[in-house]
Write a structure and sequence with these properties.
The complex is a heterodimer.
Chain A: H1 4-10, H2 16-33, H3 41-52, E1 58-60, E2 73-76, H4 84-90, E3 101-102, E4 111-114, H5 125-130, H6 174-184, H7 191-203, H8 224-246, H9 256-283, H10 290-303, H11 313-316, H12 327-354, E5 364-365, H13 382-400, E6 416-419, E7 424-431, E8 438-442, E9 447-454, E10 473-474, E11 476-479, E12 483-490, E13 495-501, H14 504-509, E14 512-517, H15 524-538
Chain B: H1 12-30, H2 38-60, H3 65-78, H4 86-94, H5 110-119, H6 128-157
Classes of the chains: A alpha+beta, B mainly alpha.
Keywords (chain A): Copper, DNA-binding, Metal-binding, Nucleus, Transcription, Transcription regulation
Biased composition (Basic and acidic residues) (chain A): 171-186, 195-211
Organism (chain A): Hibiscus syriacus
């Protein structure tokens, strides 16, 4: 069957895609007839049955233009993934380097692989002899979809090393396979995008070595290190995509670093929620026995809605009913900030909980700003603090994480920071993933701007860069896009002070919170409800209207 | 409580729920609820948190590295007085592909990856690939945990 394809392929009239398709068909025929595993069959004998069962699985010969040049495409079907036995068999072929940049066809569910055999290929010559057409054996690793539309050039290949085999190699551990199965449904239809990104990624590779006859994509380095690198990068980007689906509200993020930030924040928020919930359970008095509730809870669980509403929902639940029509913008503006807000809340709370002795007295609900309380003067008894914490912040912080909002928490939705009398407050306002910078204005105080930065605030690195020598003193500061600003001030002005974005419309949308200088601890709980009412009534007003409110 | 949907008894959620409720009953049986002093509450909170983590880790068994690491941490904490056996730790390490974390990939994940490692239990000993896998599974388990605990808390606060 060698004759048909090479002639076809040599016709340069065909586009690459057509060539690929023709090759695919040809390979399918080829595969039916030949036993490709003459030498490798010693390893794969048990799995040939499975392998042959694949409809589209075949190793494509890309040796179009040059006849006996080698291919690097491999088409694999989905069923290939279900063969855990296969992967173990191919563990032995560890020497064969692979490169699995996606290559494939825009149509259909076939998975194509682009493989480059290194010169250190361990395929024995006998196997090559068994091949009908000069093509190389490759090991497919992960399954991806891509399109080969962009890939044009290929190099000549040594005939000895080439063979026509269908290999369903699984280099990785079974765990990866299992997770691939999970991801399989997610890796669909992104073929062209993936290919283009890969091309861009690979175009920056180093120049090819002349004497190495290895199938490689255009502009790619072909030594084993870069191939392995590429493999790794593919794997990592695959997992990042999966995580992107898992973490809510990060569909718009494209950068890896931003994605990682999101993941980190999400994991942190989840952990803090667990802490909060266990705190809640610790104080709850069960009226019924837990055992009896086993069944009940179990039955309740599946009926409850377990979907997390998008992060942007959170500000809406802040009973800003007049602003529900600003949904999309609100989501962008406050939602992401909300996520950050949770982290800050939780971070300080965690510090609070784990250090009962030096617990900061302040209790806060922060849903639109990232506030990090560092009380210089240690607070009083832990019990009062705990009371404050439990009653006041936790509900708010939990809700701010973007989880399902509960209506009974609304009264605790007040966004407030309570500072200790004459304590030095160091807060950090975060503006993440928002398309513009926000000028924040704090009433009642002039603060020092000690630091600023982009992306997530990192506890280790951020404070180190603080300017504590001559920070500017002002009462309004701009927070950079996707970044943070750290301010410090001494909370010596008792009262409830408004803090908001100075862009008027944003204030209406909810980008604000309250900083309260607490003068009597016992009032903190009432504080919350008062402030929530205050917020509710304030919402319709513009910033100008409430400048003199308090 | 007529519920037409019956939970899959083998699912992660149900496993975690049963374990967690069992642990909660044990904790409640230890001390009377009437004591509402903050120290007592704090101690109970601690126990509940540990119980939640333990239940989650046990529900996952040893299938995932993070669960193994978490179980090891919990066990070592409870056996603080005794000399810690290093064999378990080594077995935990062995099962994960350990690579150097500095400059391992050209993608520049450095700082965030190290943060992620701190968050995910057992993350220090993993390369980026496995770390992302573990993170995905960990996130899934955490969300389950939060859901279940939330339901329980809501039920009892009513």
């Amino acid at each position: 069957m060698n004759r048909a394809l090479p002639e076809m392929l040599q016709s340069s009239d065909m586009t690459v895609l057509e060539r690929q398709r023709a090759r695919l068909k040809w390979q399918a025929e080829q595969f039916q007839q030949q036993n490709y595993f003459s030498e490798l069959s010693g390893v794969f004998s048990s799995q040939t049955g499975h392998v042959q069962g694949f409809q589209q699985g075949c190793l494509m010969s890309r040796g179009g233009a040059r006849g006996d040049s080698v291919l690097s495409d491999m088409a694999m079907t989905r069923q290939l993934k279900h063969e855990p036995g296969l992967e173990t068999a191919w563990q032995g072929l560890g020497k064969v380097d692979m490169e699995f940049a996606p290559c494939g066809y825009g149509s259909g569910p076939s998975f194509d692989m682009n493989h480059a055999i290194s010169r250190t290929s361990s395929c024995p010559p006998a196997v090559a002899a068994a091949a009908a057409v000069g093509s190389k054996a490759v090991k497919g690793n992960s399954l991806k979809m891509g399109s080969t539309v962009g890939r044009v050039s290929f190099k000549k290949r040594k005939v000895e090393k080439s063979q026509n085999t269908e290999v369903v190699a699984e280099d990785e551990s079974k765990r990866i396979k299992a997770s691939e199965e999970e991801r399989e449904s997610k890796i669909t239809g992104s073929s062209t995008h993936r290919n283009s990104t890969d091309k861009k990624e690979n175009s920056g590779d180093t120049s090819k070595l002349d004497y190495i006859h290895v199938r490689a994509r255009r502009g790619q380095a072909t030594d084993s290190h870069s191939l392995a690198e590429r493999v790794r990068r593919e794997k990592i980007s695959e997992r990042m995509k999966y995580l992107q689906d898992l973490v809510p509200g990060c569909n718009k993020i494209t950068g890896k670093a931003g994605m990682l930030d999101e993941i980190i924040n999400y994991v942190q928020s989840l952990q803090r929620q667990v802490e909060f919930l266990s705190m809640k359970l610790a104080t709850v008095n069960p009226s019924l026995d837990f055992n009896i509730e086993n069944l009940y809870v179990k039955e309740v669980l599946p009926s409850c809605t377990t979907n997390f509403p998008p992060v942007g929902m959170a500000p809406e639940m802040e009973n800003h009913s007049p602003y529900l029509q600003f949904n999309p913008i609100q989501q962008v503006v406050s939602g992401c900030g909300m996520e950050m807000g949770t982290n800050s809340c939780d971070m300080a709370l965690r510090r609070t909980i784990s250090a009962p002795v030096s617990i900061p007295e302040a209790s806060f609900l922060d849903t639109s700003c990232f506030t990090d309380m560092q009380q210089i003067q240690p607070s009083a008894a832990w019990d009062v603090e705990l009371q404050n914490l439990y009653n006041v912040e936790f509900p708010g912080s939990i809700e701010a994480s973007g989880l399902k909002m509960e209506m009974e928490m609304e009264m605790h939705q007040a966004k407030q920071d309570c500072f200790q009398l004459n304590g030095v407050v160091s807060t950090k306002d975060v503006n993440l993933l928002i398309v513009e910078s926000h000028p924040f204005h704090l009433h009642g105080y002039n603060f020092f701007v000690v630091g600023t930065g982009i992306r997530n605030f990192k506890q280790a690195k951020g404070p180190a860069k603080y300017n504590l020598v001559d920070p500017p003193k002002r009462n309004m500061d701009g927070i950079p896009t996707g970044g943070w600003t750290a301010i410090r001030f001494r909370a010596d002005n008792p009262g409830v002070w408004f803090k908001h974005c100075h862009l008027e419309v944003h204030t209406g949308w909810g980008l604000k919170n309250i900083c309260g200088r607490e003068w009597r601890r016992t009032q903190s709980i009432h504080f919350a409800s008062n402030v929530s009412c205050f917020l509710y009534s304030v919402a319709p007003y513009t910033a100008k209207g409430i400048h003199g409110f308090l | 409580m007529n519920n037409p949907h019956h939970m899959n008894p083998r699912s992660l959620k149900s496993r975690f729920t049963t374990r967690f409720l069992r642990a909660l009953t044990k904790i409640r049986a230890q001390k009377p609820i009437s004591s509402s002093s903050p120290t007592e509450i704090f101690r109970r909170y601690r126990k509940i948190k540990v119980a939640a983590d333990k239940s989650m880790a046990y529900s996952v068994r040893s299938r995932k590295t993070w669960s193994r690491a978490m179980l090891w941490k919990l066990r070592s904490r409870s056996h603080r007085r005794r000399p810690v056996k290093t064999k378990f730790r080594q077995s935990v390490m062995k099962n994960t592909k350990t690579t150097t974390t500095t400059g391992e990939d050209g993608v520049g994940f450095g700082v965030e990856a190290s943060e992620l490692r701190e968050l995910v239990p057992g993350g220090e000993a993993m390369d980026l690939c496995n770390l992302l896998d573990e993170t995905a599974h960990y996130i899934k388990c955490l969300t389950t945990q939060v859901q279940v605990m939330k339901k329980i808390a809501d039920f009892y606060s009513l």
